UniProtKB/TrEMBL annotation:
Name of the molecule in the record: CDK-activating kinase assembly factor MAT1
Name of one Pfam family that matches: zf-C3HC4_5
Domain RING-type as annotated: residue spans: 6-50
GO cellular component term of the entry, any: transcription factor TFIIH holo complex
Role played: Stabilizes the cyclin H-CDK7 complex to form a functional CDK-activating kinase (CAK) enzymatic complex.
Organism: Gallus gallus (Chicken)
Encoding gene (name): MNAT1
């Protein structure tokens, strides 16, 4: 992997560990000193691609590859326009096509492929879907506000818990100092043996520690978002179980006695209910 450094002044992070690299919309890197030097008037051209740039658009490079920073910034801008959600589509297939279109636009803008048609396509989409874009933008802002409020409440609770623990700790230290000072006063003024006073002090210290002993904090099991800690989502495909196919087997009834006669033999003997051999005359005989 190439060593990170400024392509203009050739300063590397090996020679200057505090070197701060900056990147702009074109994706080319400059160190902070070169940015201050080349963009004194607030605007200028890129030293590599000659793209007009503004000094205010420079930001600290977050990734080792500046192209990744460029893609991340482009994706943010594209998603501000293409901000539809799955609920806005009648089917999952159309939503997937929409996501694929976003990826194609991001790829074209990142790699300078068909820039004019891509930008024209974005402008046309923004014009045709102005109301939907504004509605989703308001919805996203509301969700962000709710999330920020929840985080602020959590921060306040943590701060109150920290102050309470701090007060309890100060109270414990103060009571221990008082107990120690009481022992010194007793040793100085009491006529009892020192061993007895030390034993009494030890008993008081033990009782004090038992009173001040606070329960261990319960280990959190969920994050602030409600997701359980340690929960992992498996994305592996479901394994197909090889099983034998079902095979029909006729029912076998165990009578534990003499064999049951066949239906045909019962018919020949004339003992089947409802047969023609059964009549009133036969009953009178």
């Amino acid at each position: 992997m190439d060593e990170q450094g400024c392509p203009r002044c050739k300063t590397t992070k090996y020679r200057n560990p505090s070197l701060k690299l900056m990147v702009n919309v074109c994706g080319h890197t400059l160190c902070e000193s070169c940015v201050e030097l080349l963009f004194v008037r607030g605007a200028g051209n890129c030293h590599e691609c000659d793209t007009p740039l503004r000094k205010s658009n420079f930001r600290v490079q977050l990734f080792d590859d500046p192209a990744v920073d460029k893609e991340v910034e482009i994706r943010k801008k594209v998603l501000k326009i293409y901000n539809k959600r799955e609920d806005d589509f009648p089917s999952l297939s159309e939503y997937n096509d929409f996501l694929e279109e976003i990826e194609e636009i991001v790829f074209n803008l990142t790699n300078n492929v068909d820039l004019e048609n891509t930008k024209r396509k974005m402008e046309l989409y923004q014009k045709d879907n102005k109301e939907v874009i504004q509605k989703n933008k308001i919805k996203l802002t509301r969700e962000q506000e709710e999330l920020e409020e929840a985080l602020e409440v959590e921060r306040q609770e943590n701060e109150q818990r920290r102050l309470l623990e701090q007060k309890e700790e100060q109270l414990q230290q103060m009571m221990k100092r008082k107990n120690k000072q009481a022992l010194l006063d007793e040793l100085e003024s009491s006529s009892l043996p020192a061993s007895l006073l030390l034993a009494q002090h030890k008993d008081r210290s033990t009782q004090l520690e038992m009173q001040l002993e606070k329960p261990k904090p319960v280990k959190p099991v969920t994050f602030s978002t409600g997701i359980k800690m340690g929960q992992h989502i498996s994305l592996a495909p479901i394994q197909k179980l090889e099983e034998t196919l079902y095979e029909y087997q006729p029912l076998q009834v165990e009578t534990y006695g003499p064999p049951v006669p066949e239906l045909e033999s019962l018919g020949r003997l004339g003992i089947i209910f409802g047969s023609q051999h059964f009549s009133i005359s036969s009953c009178s005989k």
